[in-house]
Amino acid sequence: MSAPTPSVPPAPTPPRAGGPVLHLRSVSRAFGGLKAVDDVTLELHEGEILGLIGPNGAGKSTLFNIISGVHPASTGSVVLDGRDITGLSTHAITRRGLSRTLQDHGVFAPLTVRANVEAVHGATRRSRAGRSVQDLLEACMLADLADTVAGDLPHGCERRLSIAIALATSPRLLCLDEPLSGLNEEETSEVLDLVRDLRGSWGMTVLFIDHNMRAVMRLCDRVAVLDRGRKICDGPPHEVQKDPRMIEAYLG
Ligand SMILES: Nc1ncnc2c1ncn2[C@@H]1O[C@H](COP(=O)(O)OP(=O)(O)OP(=O)(O)O)[C@@H](O)[C@H]1O
Ligand SMILES: [Mg+2]
Questions:
Q1: Which residues have a beta carbon within 5 Å of ligand 2, which is an ion?
Q2: If residue 102 lies in a helix (H) or strand (E), which one and from where to where?
Q3: What separation in Å is there between the alpha carbon of 6 and the centre of ligand 2?
Q4: How many angstroms separate the alpha carbon of residue 18 from the centre of ligand 1?
Q5: Fewer C-beta neighbours within 10 Å, C or N terminus of the chain?
């Protein structure tokens, strides 16, 4: 696939020199007696693709929900680009440059591809100051499908649309929750190529959750493993793959 067009200006919020794009400090979240996320500390650096893996129920989506403001953390803090965003609303966090896809992909089926992206793009000043809807559609290989109703799209295109929608808020940090689920091999490769291109051409920083271990290990610079809410290891893919704690978590 072709790379996203790099000819338009970068996202409006410049990175702060030095520090990580995202810093989670001892973040926990309990639901009644269940510690869904338990004392997780994690850093994500400029232009990095970080994989977040773990068995079903490990706390991955809950961590995304905390980062993006859907659930407040019970304890701990979330710092985005040097600013504490703990407890802010989802809208306030989006305005500060964090965008996410949902595990159910969040595409509005009755609208066309273009209208899905426009609906988000028109909503904030940050979006309008960033890349145009046309640039986003081209980057996600959706320009030829702009007038197609989203509900009629094949899975792979629908998934790239969910990424285009997330990009429409002009994020510094893109969080993708299971973008490969249900995709065949070719569709999977297209989504992986898109994520690589976004990092390569736009310098996007990406947090990537998926159960497709092979794809995560191929794509990501670093991988963190959650198990029963706790981060059990964090490192380059070739090291994490061999880590006995990760093997134990998956074998149960
Ligand atoms: N709103 C909620 N209320 C109560 N319990 C919840 C809530 N959200 C998540 N949980 C529980 O928290 C734990 C972690 O769930 P979470 O969805 O974060 O896991 P996950 O790692 O994303 O799993 P999967 O790989 O299946 O998507 C699970 O035991 C889940 O049942
Ligand atoms: Mg999940």
A1: 60-61
A2: none
A3: 32
A4: 33
A5: C
Give the closest residue (by CA) to ligand 1 atom 26.
Answer: 56
- The ligand whose atoms approach the alpha carbon of 56 most closely is 1
- 228 Cα to the center of ligand 2, angstroms: 12
pLDDT of residue 170: 93
Distance of CA 112 to CAs 32, 99, 108, 137, Å?
41, 21, 8, 12
Q: State which amino acid sits at residue 185.
A: E
**Is the CB of residue 67 below 6 angstroms from any atom belonging to ligand 1?**
no
CATH number of the domain located at residue range(s) 22-103+172-251 in this protein = 3.40.50.300
**CB-ligand 1 contact for 57 (6 Å cutoff):** yes
pTM value is 0.90
Digit-coded pLDDT (tens) for 39-69: 999 999 999 999 999 999 999 999 999 999 9
Low-confidence ranges of the chain (pLDDT < 70): 1-18, 103, 105
Read off the pLDDT of residues 6-42 as tens digits, 9 standing for 90 and up.
Answer: 443 334 344 444 579 999 999 999 999 999 999 999 9
Q: What is the C-alpha to C-alpha distance for residues 82 and 206, in angstroms, rounded to an integer?
A: 17
Separation CA 220–CA 48 (nearest Å): 8
Cβ contacts of 152 within 8 Å, gap of 6 or more: none
Q: Which two tokens stand for residue 113?
A: 């591809």
